[in-house]
């Protein structure tokens, strides 16, 4: 979502970091471009004015202009102000209340409210181990109650039985009573929506709130609606007292202004964001991590968390041991491709790696086809277990059989086998500790032995230095101390990368040993 804004801000700020000294005029000119970039991203005018003024106050001070690295000081100030604009600390759903805790879901029709209700219920059930009851109060939209019941079955959460003819308030009271008698921890009340704001919608939601006294009132807003989402948030908050916001369709191609404006305009935290249609596509909103992504600094902590959710640790350890011994067969490759898909593909992975934002477009420009993951796995599935364990068995006749089974040309089989050999060599080198992730990525993008140093030169600057919290998260996840980082990791022209991350303790970053892609057809 923030790709356009990220490109603009990264370009503006990288221009400052390349200069040895800055004048007040340089900062003013850069802030003018920042202001224009934010307005083009559909950020509210009042928010843009406040943001640029706060940055200016700090950026034109003597401490910045006379510092050793003034450009990087300005980048830090912009980052800090972005974090403040987005809310500072991450907001979480508050369940600290006597059971059953009521959560009232409000929003306009079409914002994804019912689906989001089921996603949150799944999250509370699986992560927080709470017993949740779902109740649909939407008596107007056809099959709205049935939709929530179906979603409830998909996520393994109980739903309130449907009783025809009851009003929204009656259903809400029945849900709270059923939760008390049934020993539920949380009751999620999915209210009706309208295409536009109107008095009937607000009055019904207000009556339900008065009848149930919910602990949380979550507004579900569609991030694709831009400034209309901000106006919707103002209206609901003024009438109902919203306690948090859930932004949906954050995986879309909107300019991102709604997300940046929502917290600053309403003062209410963005607690969760929807990142897809699937029931597990829901993430916490961390202002610092989002700011890092916008400025192209990556998001190592989210990458580690996503890896922890998607990677089978026992399987990863087995692969690590095989890597150490220099073994990497086609079953291992298939597993790596599957994990890569779960983590969002090469695009999603690169968006979280520090310093990779500015070469992401170059990789996209190479016309890489991420659907190749599925085709490659289909090819591997068409092989016998012996062929997967020993690819050397695949001679001409066997290749024809596999190609026919997978519905591809024999040339695709040859590409897969060539990629496997490359990855096997890479894994062997990484397993022996001779190459880290920097060198692996350098090879992936044709940068030779320079690794991330080559990437740094290509970007005209350095890799941002990981924070102590990011390093601690990595060490906690992978069970050991990381090798010491070299000095001046963030200095321009000095980007040696993240050494050692390609060692056997990190088999769960799949696909980094080679390019498991093909050209788009």
TrEMBL record:
Which enzyme class? hydrolase
Its EC number(s): 3.6.5.4
Subcellular location field? Cell inner membrane; Cytoplasm
Q: Which GO terms describe its biological process?
A: SRP-dependent cotranslational protein targeting to membrane
Q: Which reaction does it catalyse?
A: GTP + H2O = GDP + phosphate + H(+)
Keyword Nucleotide-binding attributed: yes
Query: Could you state a single Gene Ontology molecular function term?
Result: 7S RNA binding
What is the name of the protein in this document? Signal recognition particle protein
Organism expressing this protein natively: Methylobacterium variabile
């Amino acid at each position: 979502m923030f790709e356009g804004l990220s490109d603009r801000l990264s370009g503006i700020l990288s221009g400052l970091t390349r200069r040895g000294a800055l004048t007040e005029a340089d900062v003013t000119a850069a802030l003018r471009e920042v202001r224009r970039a934010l307005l083009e991203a559909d950020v509210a005018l009042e928010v843009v004015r406040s943001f640029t003024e706060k940055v200016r106050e700090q950026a034109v001070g003597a401490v910045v202009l006379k510092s050793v690295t003034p450009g990087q000081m300005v980048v830090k100030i912009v980052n800090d102000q972005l974090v403040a604009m987005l809310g500072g600390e991450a907001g979480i759903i508050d369940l600290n209340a006597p059971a059953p805790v009521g959560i009232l879901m409000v929003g306009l029709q079409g914002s994804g409210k019912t689906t989001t209700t089921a996603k949150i219920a799944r999250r509370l059930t699986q992560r927080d181990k709470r017993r949740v009851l779902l109740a649909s109060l939407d008596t107007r939209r056809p099959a709205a109650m049935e939709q929530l019941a179906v979603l409830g079955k998909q996520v393994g959460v109980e739903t309130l039985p449907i009783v025809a003819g009851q009003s929204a308030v009656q259903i809400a009271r029945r849900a709270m009573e059923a939760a008390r008698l049934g020993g539920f921890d949380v009751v999620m009340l999915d209210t009706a929506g309208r295409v536009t704001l109107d008095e009937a919608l607000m009055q019904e939601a207000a009556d339900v709130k008065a009848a149930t006294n919910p602990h949380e009132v979550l507004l579900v807003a569609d991030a694709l609606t831009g400034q209309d989402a901000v106006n919707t948030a103002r209206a609901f908050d003024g009438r109902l007292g919203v306690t948090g916001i859930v932004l949906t369709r954050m995986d879309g191609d909107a300019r991102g202004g709604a997300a940046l404006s929502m917290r600053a305009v309403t003062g209410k935290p963005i607690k969760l964001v929807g990142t897809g249609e699937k029931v597990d596509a829901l993430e916490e909103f961390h202002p610092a991590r989002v700011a890092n992504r916008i400025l192209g600094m990556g998001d190592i902590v989210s990458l580690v968390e996503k890896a922890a959710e998607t990677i089978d640790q026992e399987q990863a350890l087995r692969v690590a041991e095989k890597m150490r011994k220099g073994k990497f067969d086609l079953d291992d490759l298939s597993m790596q491709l599957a994990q890569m898909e779960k983590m969002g593909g090469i695009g999603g992975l690169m968006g979280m790696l520090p310093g990779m934002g500015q070469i992401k477009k170059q990789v996209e420009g190479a016309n890489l086809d991420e659907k190749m993951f599925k085709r490659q796995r289909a090819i591997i599935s068409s092989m016998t277990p012996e062929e997967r364990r020993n690819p050397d068995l695949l001679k001409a006749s066997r290749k024809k059989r596999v190609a026919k089974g997978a519905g591809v040309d024999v040339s695709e089989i040859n590409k897969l086998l060539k990629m496997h050999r490359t990855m096997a060599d890479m894994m062997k080198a990484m397993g022996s500790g001779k190459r880290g992730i920097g060198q692996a990525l350098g090879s992936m993008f044709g940068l030779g032995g320079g690794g991330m140093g080559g990437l740094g030169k290509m970007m005209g600057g350095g890799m941002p230095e990981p924070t102590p919290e990011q390093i601690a998260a990595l060490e906690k996840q992978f069970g050991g101390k990381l090798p010491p980082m070299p000095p001046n990791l963030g200095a321009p022209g000095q980007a040696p990368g993240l050494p050692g991350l390609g060692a056997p303790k990190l088999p769960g970053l799949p696909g980094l040993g080679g390019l498991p892609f093909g050209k788009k057809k």
